[in-house]
Amino acid sequence: MSGAPLPRIALLTLASAASAGAVAAFAARHRDSLALVGLSNPYRRSAGGPLGQAWRHLRRSGPRLLGYLLVNMALPRLAGLLSPGPGPLARALSDGAARVVAVEDVNGPAFAEALRASGAELIVTFHFDGILSAETLALAPKGGINVHPSLLPRHRGPIPTFWAGLEGNGAHGVTVHRLVPRIDAGAVLAQRAVPLPPGTTVSAAARLLHEAAVPLAAEALARLATGDAEERPVEPLPYRPFPSRAALRDARRRGLRLVDAADIRAALRARL
């Protein structure tokens, strides 16, 4: 492949311990192509706010999932408050020209205006919690791609490493695929299986797979830039939602842990 210039990128992400290091590495690697960085507000009112979301997760999944979410979402933010200073993504963007915006509604007029003003040609979602409408995707001349930590079409949904962990050896991997207005359902651009050590927690698997996705995403972007990208349509398998209490009990019986002490230390280092 030749060194064709990459399209100008609008990077959308949800800051968490599961992806902070990988997203920062992606941003550093493609700093010269970044036109816009959108940071989702996970506690936005339209999603129920922090209390509404916590109650919804508690009713469906019980306290074990709340612990997982606290480690990956809340603990890094607390660490950032207690130890002020730029986190990994802010450091990666410090000498670049990309505008950073908070995203309350990815399909709303405020984000549409920011996307148009940025001149971004391609949207890249990397651990993002919003589904982009066809109208929003059409604002980027080259559409959008998503980075997903599973071997799609398997394990569509918000915590794929939980379901892959239940499935067992050989189930983990990463996929770069086209964005469509359906969760994790677009044509596959690049995919790679990633073996993980036995006993890897759900949280650690997410970090490792997101890290493995950074070079895979770079390959996909290079092929898009040269026109050599092959898009493989896939028939989506059933959506995998947040786990129920029964699924979490099954995971415990099988020895699949959501978090451990190493995950807590990683969350503190993430400093969102």
TrEMBL record:
Record keywords: Signal, Transferase
GO molecular function list = methionyl-tRNA formyltransferase activity
InterPro entries recorded = Formyl_transf_N, Formyl_transf_N_sf
Regions that span the bilayer: none
Residue stretches making up the Formyl transferase N-terminal domain: 109-214
Keyword Magnesium among record annotations: no
One short Pfam name that applies is Formyl_trans_N
Indicate whether Transferase appears among the record's keywords: yes
Signal peptide limits: 1-27
Give the coiled coil ranges. none
Q: Which PANTHER family match?
A: METHIONYL-TRNA FORMYLTRANSFERASE, METHIONYL-TRNA FORMYLTRANSFERASE, MITOCHONDRIAL
Q: What is this protein called?
A: Formyl transferase
- Originating organism: Muricoccus nepalensis
